[in-house]
Sequence to fold (698 residues):
Amino acid sequence: MTPKPSKKTRAPAVRTLEKAPTGILGLDEVTGGGLPAGRPTLVSGGAGSGKTLFALEFLVRGATQYDEPGVFMSFEETIPDLAINAASLGFDLNRLVAEKKLFLDHVSISRSEISETGEFDLEGLFIRIADAVKRVGARRVVLDTIEALFAELPNPGILRSEIRRLFGWLKQQGLTTVITAERDRPDKLTRHGIEEFVSDCVMVLDHRIRDEISTRRLRIVKYRGSTHGTNEYPFLIDAHGISVLPISSLGLDHAAPAERVSTGIERLDGMMGGKGYYRGSSILMSGTSGTGKTSVSAHFVDAACRRGERCLYFAFEESPKQIVRNMRSIGIDLEPWLRKDLLQFRAARPTYGGIEEVLLVSHKHIDRFEPAIVVVDPITNLLTVSTLGEVRSMLTRLVDFLKTRQITSIFTSLTAPGGSLEASEADISSLMDTWLLLKSIEVGGERNRALYVLKSRGMEHSNQIREFLLTNHGLRMLDVYLGPEGVLTGSARMSQEGRERAAGTSRRQEREGRKRELSRKAQIFEARMAMLRAEFEMDEERIQQRISESTLLDKELLQDRGQMVRSREADASVDTNGSGAPVSRKR
Amino acid sequence: MAKAKPTPRARSLASKPLAPKVFKLRLFVAGQTAKSVRAFANLKVLCEQRLKDRYEIEVVDLLEHPHMARGNQIVAVPTLEIQLPQEVRKIIGDLSNTERVLVGLDLQEIG
Fold:
C-alpha cells in the first residue's frame, strides 16, 4: 500500500545516465540499457505504429522482469480493449492487476459534456496518477496518448502548460514514463508539439509499406546524455511482444575462435586443412538446383548433433518432413536429433512477412534455442520478398549476430543455372568466411556433382574440384581425377579411364607385336642361315665330288697311257713322256 | 484506501426541496486553492440568484478522495458536475463565465 522506496539499484551503473531496461528484445541494446530512468520518454508515431503495444510491453516487462510495478493511463482505449491488445502479445494484464503489479486507468472525457467557464488546471489528472502510483508502488508510468486531451478539453494554452507541469512532476517523482503521441504529419513529431517538454528521450515509431511489404521501424530522435545509433531500427510485433533490431552492424569486435568443427564429411574436412570449418564462421554454399547443398548441410548438422550440439535449421523452401525424408535416402537420419531436441526446424516461406520479419523471427528462435549451428536454406528465397540490397543488409546483421554468439552458420544459395555462378553472389559472399561452390558438371549427356572450396578465410584449403556421389550411405567424395582436359566426372571419367586402359593395351600389344616380329625376323634370319648353309654344304659336296672325280680321271688316263706304252714298246717313249726324259738313253 | 464505499464530505446548502426540480451539483476541487475557492463562490452566487432553494451543492476535495477522480472521470479541476434527469454534465473552470454555467444548467434565457 505504501509506495516502495526508490530503488533504482537494479540497473547496472551506466556512465552518464541511469537507465531503466525495457525488456523489449533488442531495444535495450540499441539504447545502451533502456530508457532514461526516472524521466519521461516520448514515443511518437502514426496510427497503428505500435505505440500502445510498445508502452504496454514496457510496463509489463518492468512489472514482471524488473520488479518495477507500473501505471497505465489510457486516454483512448478502454481497459477491456487494452487487456485484449495485451493478450495479443501474450500478456495477461488482469493477472498483473490482481497481483498489484499494474494499475490501469482509463481517462475518458467526452467533449460534449464539457464546457469551460474559466480558469482550470489538470490537478484531477495529477491526483489520479498519484493515487494509482501509490496503490501499486509504481516505478513506471505510461500516458497513452495524452494529446487526446486536446480534443476533449478546451483551451490548448492551459493544456500545454499543464502537460509541461505534469512531465516535470513525473520526473520529480522519479517515475520512468513513456508518453505516447500521435504523429499525423511527417514534419512534426507530435500533433501539439509536446516534444518540447521532453528533453531526455524521443523515439519515433513508423509503419511503412514498401513493395507491398510492411516494415516497422523505430528511430531514436533524441537521447540526451547517452550515445545511441541515429539509425532506424526495424522492429516486429508478434505473439511474444516487440523485437527491435539494429539495422547497422553490431560491430566487428566479435571473437574469432580458432576451434574447428568437422563438416561431417571426412574428405571435405581434408580439403580444409583436415579440420573443417572454423567455429563461429559463416559458410556460403552455393550451387544450382540439385547439386547437393542441402545434403552437404545435413552432413554438417548430423555431425554437430552427434557431438551433442544444438542445430537450428531455417527451411525456407522445403518442409522439415521433406528434408528428413530426403536425407534418409542418403543415409542421414535426422529423426533422432529432432526427438532429442538437438535439432529444430523452422520452416516458413518468407513471403508471409517482410525480410525484417524473417530476421527478427530468426533472432527470436536463436535466442530461445541457443544453437551452436544454424542453417539457412536457402537465402535466395529471401530475394523473392525483397531487394538484393535489403537481403544483403539483413544478412550482414544476421551474420554479425551469429558471430557474436559464435554460432557456426551455413547459408545455402540457389544459383540460376547457366548464369555466372560467382558473379551473382559476389555481393553476399563477401560476408562469408568460407564459400563452397557446388557444381553440376554436364558432360556426355549426364550431370555429375562436384564441389570446391572457393575461399576459406584463415585456413589452407584445397583448390581442387572434387567429384562426389550421393550414395545411400551418405555423400562420398571421389578421388581427384586430373585428366588432360581438367576434372572429369561420372561416366566421362570412366570412359576416359577406359580409353586410357584401351590405349595402354594397344601399346602393350604393339610392343609385343614388335617383339614377336623381331623374333620372327630372327627366326627367318636363322632359317635363311640354315638354308644357305645347307646350299653351301650341297655345293661343297658337289664340288668336292667333282674334284675327286677329275683326280680319278687323271689317274686312269695315266694308267691307260702306261699300258699303251708298254704295249707299243719301242718308239713310244718320247711322245708319251711329257717331261721329255728319254726313256732309253739311260738305260 | 480500504474503505468500501467512501462517503464524500458534503455540504448541503439551502436544501429545501422544491416542486419542479432540484439541481444536484457536485463541485470537484483539489484542495483549497484560489481557483477552487473562486469556483465555489461563483457557484454559490449563481445558485442563490437563479435556483434559490432548488439546489444541493456537494463539494468533493479530490486530495482527500483521490479515487473519486477516477470514479467520476475528473481530469480538470475545478469541475462542476450537474446531474440532470437525462444526463450528467460537466463544466470545468472557476465558473467565472456565468453565461456558460447557465447553459450547462439549461437555464440560459436569451442568446
